[in-house]
Specification:
The complex is a heterodimer of chains A (261) and B (261). Chain A is of the alpha/beta class. In chain A, 39% of the residues lie in helices and 25% in strands. Classes of the chains: A alpha/beta (261), B mainly alpha (261). The structure holds adenosine-5'-triphosphate and magnesium ion (MG).
Chain lengths: 261, 261
């Protein structure tokens, strides 16, 4: 059995060598009144990798990812995404950067007063110019829906879809912008094991097809095993352990072991 | 005794805190409303939805108010031999006071609660966050359009309700007193002048603004959970109704000052 420190050291060295981190998070802190959620969280996401962040419910995973996308302001710390300092970016540059980042919300967050088509067209409202003057919006919508296997739902309302289908439509909505990075906030939460597996397979397929990097938040061990290139365990607001799935399951530490029961 | 004093104190202080936050929200509205881009399509949609939500109820109530008011005052006027004053009396009381207040209260019940629940559920299911991430300013798209829509539509609904109320009143006069339409409406319009109409319309504009403002405020800052959505809808009705009475009181004082001059 390897000790936790050993793995940590080894990864530090690897990270010093590779210099193509597209997201760098340093000393992230965030509290709500007396509730200290993040206490100095550090993270790097490298180009092309799937990084899984695992943590218990309520450990601050959603808070962390919302700080990354600029929906919450951290109390302290550095967040650098593709060379831009997120915390101090003005609104229009932030919007510009967000167009390169897909965000899959924990509960899908489809606009329930709009059809599937309108949902997918919505992100294009502000970012049309990215795709040139004469873009075929209809074509883009169908292409994104096809890549999640739901082209036939284009004129339905979100309320008429099952939870798993909603999650896939939400995924299509992030894909339509052709993002370079995708943030997944618990992509399999609230879904049955079979549907979860479908989503995971889809995520893998998308990564190969669109060549994205991904930050995946989950407490689903199966999801982590299949999808992760590297993992970070978030405990008490800090990155408690880092490594590949195979490395971490061998670690002899009670808090780490608790994740893989 | 101590307890009740304390709770009254905290009630009053929370009331003023709410008013402060609401004022701040209104300031934010004006700032965002002035700056482009403008969401005209969404504004039209919201205008339609405000009208659509309240038209049946406004029609029915307007008509019944006219009917009842006339039926109830008729015996008294008859006693003094002053039935011929009926059209002018009903006209003035409906246009100046009863029409705007009752119709605004109906809109508070229908529209403010609808907006509170709608935005509340969008907040809870992270749709507002999703909008922000996709580069559309949710405050502009959701709040500015809704407040503008109620500000425009409530005065129109008030005028429409007034007309129906007068028609209801005419029907009573026609069947009980054999008054012709021409005579009735001639008398109504002789009794009314611009100094009755203009303040009533201005007042209705403020009522409409208050309805949209409170509905959006409650929904936009909705607490997490389904309980929060219900609460947002409920408190939106209570608070906007209260505001309507306060605004009406202020309007009466102001128009009284002008009347004296
Ligand atoms: N807007 C907020 N205001 C106050 N506290 C908050 C807010 N958002 C999150 N929290 C608190 O931060 C903590 C972490 O919440 P978060 O949603 O990040 O958990 P999570 O790790 O995503 O859990 P889950 O797996 O259940 O989604 C919780 O204790 C929560 O109460
Ligand atoms: Mg979460």
């Amino acid at each position: 059995m390897k000790s936790l420190e050993n793995i940590q050291e080894q990864h530090k060295e690897e990270q010093l060598e590779t210099n193509d981190a597209i997201i760098i998070v340093e000393d992230l802190e965030k509290s709500f009144a007396s509730n200290h959620v993040l206490n100095g969280f550090n993270m790097k996401l490298f180009s092309g990798e799937n990084l899984v962040i695992m943590g218990k419910s309520g450990s601050g995973k959603s808070v962390m990812i919302k700080c990354l996308i600029g929906l919450m302001k951290p109390d302290r710390g550095v967040i650098n995404i593709m060379g831009k300092d997120i915390v101090h970016l003005d609104q229009s540059s932030l919007d510009e950067l967000r167009a390169d980042i897909g965000f899959l919300f924990q509960g899908s967050a489809l606009y329930d007063s709009m059809t599937v088509r309108e949902n997918l067209e919505f992100p294009l409202r502000r970012h049309r110019e990215r795709f040139g003057k004469n873009i075929e919006v209809d074509h883009m919508v169908l292409e994104a829906l096809e890549s999640v296997g739901l082209a036939h739902t284009v004129d339905l309302m979100p309320g008429e879809l099952s939870g798993g289908m909603q999650r896939r439509v939400a995924l299509a909505r992030t894909l339509i912008m052709k993002p370079k990075i995708i943030f997944y906030d618990e992509p399999t939460s609230g879904l049955d094991p079979i549907t979860s597996k479908e989503i995971i397979v889809l995520m893998k397929k998308i990564q190969q097809q669109y060549k994205t990097s991904a930050l995946i938040i989950t407490h689903d061990v199966d999801c982590a095993r299949v999808i992760s290139d590297r993992m970070i365990l978030l405990v008490d607001g800090v990155n408690y352990a880092e490594g590949t799935y195979q490395e971490l399951i061998k670690v002899d530490d009670p808090k780490v072991k608790a994740f893989f029961k | 005794m101590m307890l009740s004093e304390k709770s009254i104190g905290s009630l009053i202080s929370s009331f003023f805190k709410q008013i402060g936050a609401l004022t701040f929200f209104a300031g934010h509205f004006f700032k965002e409303a002035i700056q482009p881009p403008y969401e005209f399509n969404e504004l039209l949609k919201q205008c339609y939805s405000v009208g659509n939500r309240s038209l049946p109820l406004v029609s029915l109530t307007g008509f019944i108010i006219g009917l009842v008011l006339t039926l109830q005052t008729r015996p008294t006027l008859q006693e003094f031999g002053a039935v011929s004053w009926m059209p002018s009396m009903v006209g003035i009381s409906i246009v100046r006071e009863i029409g705007p207040v009752i119709i605004a209260l109906i809109c508070a019940g229908r529209v403010a609660s609808g907006i509170g629940a709608e935005l509340g559920s969008m907040r809870v299911t992270e749709q507002i966050d999703a909008m922000e991430v996709s580069g559309t300013n949710p405050f502009k798209f959701l709040v500015v359009t809704r407040i503008t829509a109620t500000t425009l539509m409530v005065p129109l609904l008030v005028i429409y309700g007034d007309v129906l109320a007068l028609y209801g009143s005419f029907l009573v006069e026609h069947f009980k007193g054999d008054v012709s339409a021409r005579l009735f409406f001639n008398q109504v319009f002789n009794a009314l002048n611009f100094s009755d109409l203009i303040p009533a319309v201005i007042k209705s504009v403020f009522f409409g603004f208050a309805i949209g403002l409170v509905g959006c405020f409650k929904g936009y800052y909705c607490e997490k959970g389904t309980v929060g959505v219900g609460l947002a809808a409920n408190t939106a009705v209570v608070m906007s109704s209260l505001l309507i009475f306060i605004l009406d009181f202020i309007a009466v004082i102001i128009s009284d000052i002008f009347y004296d001059l």
